[in-house]
Specification:
Blueprint (H helix, E strand, L loop, with lengths): L7 E3 L7 E7 L4 H6 L5 H9 L1 H8 L8 H14 L1 H7 E3 L9 H11 L4 E3 L1 H15 L4 H8 L1 E4 L2 E6 L2 E5 L3 E4 L2 H10 L12 E8 L5 H11 L1 H12 L3 E8 L6 E5 L2 H24 L9 H4 L2
Parallel strand pairs: 3-4, 9-10
Antiparallel strand pairs: 1-2, 2-6, 5-8, 6-7, 8-9, 10-11
Helix pairs in contact: 2-3, 2-11, 4-5, 4-7, 11-12
Amino acid sequence: LRSLVGSEMCIRDRENKMQYQRVLPDMPMLAYHRTPGLSSSGLSYAADSMAKYRCYLDGGIKFESRSLDLGSAVHLMLESTDAFYQAYQLRPDGLDKRTKAGKEAFAELESNGKIVLDQDQWTTVHTLYDHYKNSEDELIQMVINSEGENEVSVFWEEEGMTMKCRPDRLIRPSLEYCEKLCGRFPSLFDVPFGIQLCVDFKTSSRRIDPKGFGYACRDYQYPLRASHYLSGTQADAFLWVVLETVPPFGITRYFLSNQTRQYHDALRYSLIQQIAECEVTGVWPGITLTDEETLL
C-alpha cells in the first residue's frame, strides 16, 4: 500500500491468505458502505453471534445516537477542517424545535444538507481539535506530521471472501520517527525505516486510562477490528488515538501489542470460517453458553 494508493495489485500477506487488494483513495463513504464485503463492524457482530451478524447484514441494527453523531464530527474535524465545515453547522441560539416556528426554522437550516450540531457538541469538537493539534505527545505529533492518507477504502480477497476496511488514517513516519519507534517499541518494530502505521481515532465519554480503554476494547471489539484493518492494509502496526469527550477532554494513544494481535488474528480467522459455514448451511445460530459460562 505504501506507494500503491489508487491502484490494484496481487499480494500475499504474512500467512499467504490474501490474494488480491484494491485501494481506492477517493471513494465516498456512502459508496463504500454500499459495496459488498466483510467489514470490521460485521466481524464485531459475528463475535457476539452469527445470528447478530445476520441481523446486521439484513439492516436490522440501526446506528442513531448523539454519541455517534459527535464521534463522526470529531473524526472529520481531525482529518480535515475544510471537510468538517462543509458537512456541519452550528445550531443558532434560541432555536426551539418544540415550537412550530422552531421546527420550520430547523427544517430550513437542514435544507442546505449540512448536519446541525448544538453549542455543546460544537464546542466539544473544537476543544478536542485544539487538544489534538497542540498535544506534546511525540506519538500524536507523529500522526499529525507524517505523510499519509485519510479514509482510504481497501478491498481484498481472503479465504474466498471479499473483505473491506476504511482506516481513519494511514501514515508513513519519517526516518527519524521510524528510528524512535524501533527504540521505544522493539517488540513491534525491528527495521528503522519504511514503517507504515494504521491509525484509528476513538472518542469516549468514559475513562481513557489503560484500564478504562481496555474495557472499551473488550466491549466494542476494538482489537478484532484492528486485526481486520491490518490484514487489509498490510500496515506494520496499529495505533489508537483516544479522545475524551467530557472534561478535561484528555487525549492519549495506544498501540496494539503483538500478543493481543495474535489472539485476535486467530479469533478473526475462526469467525471468517464460521461465517463461510453459515452461508453454506443457511443456519445462523444465536449465542450459546457452556455450563461454566452459565455460572456468573
